[in-house]
Write a structure and sequence with these properties.
The protein is of the alpha/beta class. It has 11 helices and 5 strands; from the N terminus they run αβαβααβααβαααβαα. A 5-stranded parallel beta sheet has the order 2-3-1-4-5, with helices on both faces. The termini are far apart.
Length: 272
């Protein structure tokens, strides 16, 4: 049982995956330069179940991009002041200016998912969100923002497997929160919330694109390839850069090394 029917698919060999990943990342750099030069505003929303692979995909998308152009936004829970604002207000300040890309690691859709399921918002606030969200997104698109929304779909069995792997990995235990564990016991509630969200917010101006993510490698490649296919970017000619010749020395001498504090050579211990 999962979000969507998941097709059985063979694993992609690592060499094949890494070659195609690099090709797609190279294209994303071209897209970035086109966005920067043409003054485009691009918003990419990443949503889905806990442990569905959103974070890993965002990491690969942004890996070779300029952080001054492409920013990842992952907001914490709202402050008391933000809770008193119009719901969409705190997200608006993170929207891109001309020549920028914003990658939302979860977004305003928190209200349609975790807030609604966990009771962090009222039924009236949830109803208002479902009414206002399509209006809000149409306004973004009408103003010229390119908006892409991806839902990462993972089966319940694969989600639990990933949770167990996180539990046994000290470098990833921080990714396993009490809220994640609640997603196991409230699986069907999240499913119903997602279905209702799709009914109201899968609009022609800003459709949802579902990424089957039981296989992380396939999910990353599929999402990146799709994003590139939906943006009419073109390669921007880069200026010719020549590394200048180093000028002759004017007599500079480096101060003695013992006048500065150096980081201990920890790596030397590993090879001795």
């Amino acid at each position: 049982m999962g979000d969507e029917p998941t097709r059985a698919a063979a694993k992609i060999p690592r060499a094949v995956y890494e070659k195609e990943l690099l090709r797609l990342q190279t294209e994303l750099v071209k897209l970035q330069e086109w966005v920067r030069v043409e003054g485009v505003r691009l918003v990419v929303v990443f949503e889905g179940r806990d442990a569905a692979g959103k974070g890993g995909t965002i990491k690969r998308v942004a890996e070779h991009l300029n952080p001054r152009v492409a920013r990842t936004v992952a907001l914490p829970k709202p402050t008391e002041r933000e809770r008193s604002q119009w719901y969409f207000q705190r997200y608006i300040e993170h929207l891109p200016s001309a020549g920028e890309i914003t990658l939302f690691d979860r977004s305003w859709y928190n209200r349609a998912g975790v807030e609604q399921v966990m009771g962090f918002c009222t039924k009236e606030e949830h109803r208002r969100f479902l009414h206002q969200c399509p209006i809000f997104e149409r306004m973004l698109v009408e103003d010229g923002i390119l908006l892409r929304k991806y839902w990462f779909s993972v089966s319940d069995a694969e989600q639990e497997l990933r949770f167990r792997k996180r539990l046994g990995d000290p470098t990833r235990q921080w990714k396993l929160s009490p809220m994640d564990l609640e997603s196991i016991t409230r699986w069907e509630a999240y499913s119903r919330a997602k279905d209702e969200m799709m009914v109201h917010t899968d609009i022609p101006e800003a459709p949802w694109y579902v990424v089957e993510s039981d296989n992380k490698r396939r999910a990353r490649l599929n999402m990146m390839a799709h994003l590139l296919s939906t943006v009419p970017y073109s390669e921007v000619p880069l200026p010719v850069i020549e590394i200048p010749a180093r000028p002759p020395s004017t007599g500079y001498e480096r101060p003695p090394r013992d006048l500065q504090t150096y980081v201990p050579d920890h790596a030397a211990k590993l090879t001795s």
